[in-house]
């Protein structure tokens, strides 16, 4: 298939492009809109996806070794079980994307030249050392000048000379403040208006010169004119100062240094903000991957137990085996039909529990009775992590009901207490051992609650006053979903 043929296929088939199991190594997908495309099980080694739109695309089980996803949109894309060695994800949007069990051992971002900053210059030997020496000398010289003139004012016996020093200090302080404020005020406009660096510095220099000359003139008429006029009348007064325009060079130089430093500071802040966003996004993806991994382990565990139950009935009671198979099919339609979703309504979770218990009721017959009760109708609209109750009910069957020779009972009760949602699973089997830590199913529930709710979700094993597993989640951490479910059902 050529790129032109692929573009024609996208146009005919709309958004959903199906290329499962294809050999597309080195193919050029750059810039194409492949939203929702199915490229699973394909060889996409060294493929070019630069700038491509792959929102919600399925690339699971594909070989993506050496593929280039620079600036691609991978929002909620499925890259599970992919070979991603030497992949380039620079600038890609990976929000909501799934990377479970994908190889990323040789992730290589684009290498960019290190920007020239004052920090990097000072760290260089040779010129960096020389520039550091000059900056250090200027700073010390300026600080010494401040100390020198301040001391002269404090110790001067001639009021006229003291007034002269005050004028000089006031003028320098005002010029310094004006230089910084003009630079700071023009920074945003210069950055957006001019891409050429020398134009920014030239325009800033002109603005600073105009501002400093205006301020200096005002201060001269305010503080300096009378003092200088009086001193000029003294026969012993010697004015050996440099021409006034020489002093303007210092103002222009300082302004351009301020502009450079402020620009570097903005770039550093932007980079830090981008890095914080990337770290936050990576943390979100990590949490999503951990939850997906927990869910992926629950489903095969349940299937293993259910198939064993069916196998035990195939020869003894084929009708019951058929009924159980249909119930199991319904159960897994619920499970697989919500692919990619981490939450479900309490109504859906209880429907799954009820179906599971019906599956087990076929096997146990009169030895198993169960009830599902919700204290308040509005609680069934709450959204919970998927498969939160089923593993606990499964354990109640395996470790409780299966160990009884007579009638067993499981009661699932949902109620609100002290601002918390309580989900209880009670069975009348043997009591929990004193040092029981729980099997995989219970540990997975604990891990889920910890990941999603922290200290606001917990699991308790109780033997008194009833033997039950109690899940508690703060209601403030839960949201509602418009669903409907029978409030109470007993079997």
User: How far apart lie the N and C ends?
Assistant: 59 Å
The helix-strand sequence is: HHHHHHHEHEEHEEHEEE
Low-confidence stretches: 105-114, 481-490
Calculate Rg over CA atoms. Answer: 37 Å
Walk me through the topology:
Blueprint (H helix, E strand, L loop, with lengths): L2 H11 L104 H6 L3 H29 L3 H35 L3 H36 L11 H71 L3 H19 L6 E3 H19 L3 E7 L8 E3 L4 H10 L8 E10 L2 E8 L12 H14 L3 E6 L5 E7 L13 E3 L1
Parallel strand pairs: 2-4
Antiparallel strand pairs: 1-3, 2-8, 4-5, 5-7, 6-7
Helix pairs in contact: 3-4, 4-5, 4-6, 5-6, 6-7, 6-10, 7-8, 8-9
Record keyword descriptors for this entry.
single chain; 491 residues; alpha+beta; two-stranded antiparallel ribbon; 10 helices; 10% strand
Structure, described:
- The protein is of the alpha+beta class and 491 residues long.
- Helix content is 51%, strand content 10%.
- The chain contains ten helices and eight strands.
- Strand 6 and strand 7 form a beta hairpin.
- Helix 5 runs antiparallel to helix 6 and helix 8 (346-364) packs parallel to helix 9.
- The longest helix is centred in the middle third of the chain and has 71 residues, at 244-314.
- The protein is elongated.
- Residues 105-114 and 481-490 have low confidence and may be disordered.
Offer a quick outline of the entry:
This protein is α+β, with helices and mostly antiparallel strands and 491 residues long. It has helices spanning 3-13, 118-123, 127-155, 159-193, 197-232, 244-314, 318-336, 346-364, 390-399, 440-453; strands at residues 343-345, 368-374, 383-385, 408-417, 420-427, 457-462, 468-474, 488-490.
């Amino acid at each position: 298939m050529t790129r032109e043929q692929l573009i024609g296929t996208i146009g005919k088939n709309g958004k959903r492009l199906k290329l499962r199991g294809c050999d597309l190594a080195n193919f050029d997908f750059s810039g194409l809109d492949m939203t929702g495309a199915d490229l699973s099980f394909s060889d996409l080694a060294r493929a070019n996806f630069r700038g491509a739109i792959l929102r919600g695309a399925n690339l699971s089980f594909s070989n993506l070794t050496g593929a280039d996803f620079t600036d691609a949109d991978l929002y909620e894309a499925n890259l599970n079980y992919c070979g991603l060695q030497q992949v380039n994800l620079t600038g890609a949007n990976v929000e909501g994307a799934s990377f479970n069990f994908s190889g990323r051992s040789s992730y290589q971002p684009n290498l960019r030249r290190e920007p020239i900053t004052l920090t990097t210059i000072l760290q260089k030997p040779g010129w960096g050392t020389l520039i550091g020496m000059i900056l250090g000398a200027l700073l010390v010289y300026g600080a010494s000048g401040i100390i020198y003139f301040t001391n002269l004012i404090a110790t001067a016996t001639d009021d006229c000379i003291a007034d002269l020093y005050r004028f000089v200090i006031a003028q320098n302080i005002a010029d310094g403040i004006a230089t910084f404020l003009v630079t700071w005020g023009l920074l945003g406009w210069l950055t957006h208006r001019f891409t050429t660096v020398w134009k920014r510095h030239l325009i800033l220099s002109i603005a600073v010169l105009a501002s400093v000359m205006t301020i200096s003139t005002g201060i001269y008429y305010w503080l300096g004119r009378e003092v200088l006029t009086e001193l000029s009348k003294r026969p012993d007064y010697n004015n050996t100062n440099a021409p006034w325009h020489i002093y303007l060079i210092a103002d222009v130089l300082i302004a351009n240094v301020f502009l450079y430093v402020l620009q570097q500071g903005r770039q550093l802040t932007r980079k830090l903000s981008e890095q914080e966003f990337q770290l936050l996004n990576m943390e979100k993806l990590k949490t999503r991957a951990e939850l997906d991994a927990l869910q992926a382990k629950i489903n095969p565990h349940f299937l293993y137990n259910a198939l064993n139950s069916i196998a035990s009935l195939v020869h003894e009671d084929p009708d019951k085996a058929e009924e159980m198979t249909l119930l199991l099919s319904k159960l897994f339609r619920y499970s697989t039909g919500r692919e990619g979703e981490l939450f479900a309504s309490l109504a859906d979770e209880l429907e799954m529990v009820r179906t599971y218990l019906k599956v087990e009721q076929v096997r146990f017959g009169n030895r198993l009775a169960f009830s599902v009760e919700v204290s308040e109708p509005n609680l069934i609209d709450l959204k919970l992590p998927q498969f939160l109750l089923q593993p606990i009910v499964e354990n109640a069957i395996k470790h409780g009901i299966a160990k009884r020779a007579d009638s067993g009972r499981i009661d699932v009760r949902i109620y609100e207490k002290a601002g918390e949602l309580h989900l209880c699973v009670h069975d009348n089997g043997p009591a929990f051992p004193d040092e029981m830590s729980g099997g995989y199913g219970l540990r997975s529930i604990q891990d889920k609650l910890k990941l999603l709710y922290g200290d606001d979700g917990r699991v308790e094993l109780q033997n008194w006053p009833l033997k039950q597993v109690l899940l508690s989640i703060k209601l403030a951490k839960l949201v509602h979903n418009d669903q409907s479910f029978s409030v109470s059902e007993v079997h």
